Amino acid sequence: MQCSVQWNGPEGMLFVTKTGSGHIIAMDGAPEGGGNNLAPRPMELLLSGAGGCSAYDVVLILKRGRHAVTQCTVDINAERATEDPKVFTKIHFHFKVTGKSLSRDAVERAVKLSHDKYCSAVAMLEKTAEFTHEVMIIEA
Q: Which InterPro entries does this one have (predicted)?
């Protein structure tokens, strides 16, 4: 896996990443940090990556189990350390999983497998952060 990050000049803190798969991601800082608020912060992308990784796992596990999942949303709230490096210290995932006749046990199992076994992003972040989660099941 690879990527390239390029700073877009002296008038701010906008960085553009090109991923190894050929996708482009912009990152910027807050105005008080020299940025222009044109794109997500790097730490927001890190948190989004963990949410995406876990949601991907949950959907894949449910689909492989032949559960009729039709939608998965993860709302994430995180707290950071007050001193540098301002790592994440607490991360809470709220999964909203929609499907037909989904059992709570199946969804909880998928979330647990993602967080305990499959999600690389969660595995890295749990070195500094306490993870919690909750699950809401919505009938399709």
A: KH_dom-like_a/b, OsmC/Ohr_fam, OsmC/Ohrsf
DSSP E strand boundaries for 1-140: 3-7, 15-19, 24-27, 68-80, 88-100, 130-139
In this prediction, residue 135 carries a pLDDT of 98
| Tokens 């499907």, located at residue | 99
Q: Which two tokens stand for residue 134?
A: 């909750």
Q: What is the pLDDT of residues 38-51, one digit of tens each?
A: 999 999 999 999 99
pLDDT digits (tens, 9 = 90+) for 64-89: 999 999 999 999 999 999 999 999 99
**Fold designation for 42-139:** GMP Synthetase; Chain A, domain 3 (3.30.300)
Per-residue buried b or exposed e for 14-32, using 16+ beta carbons within 10 Å of the residue's own CB: bbeeeeeeeeeeebbbeee
**Hey, which residues does 67 pair with through a beta bridge?**
none
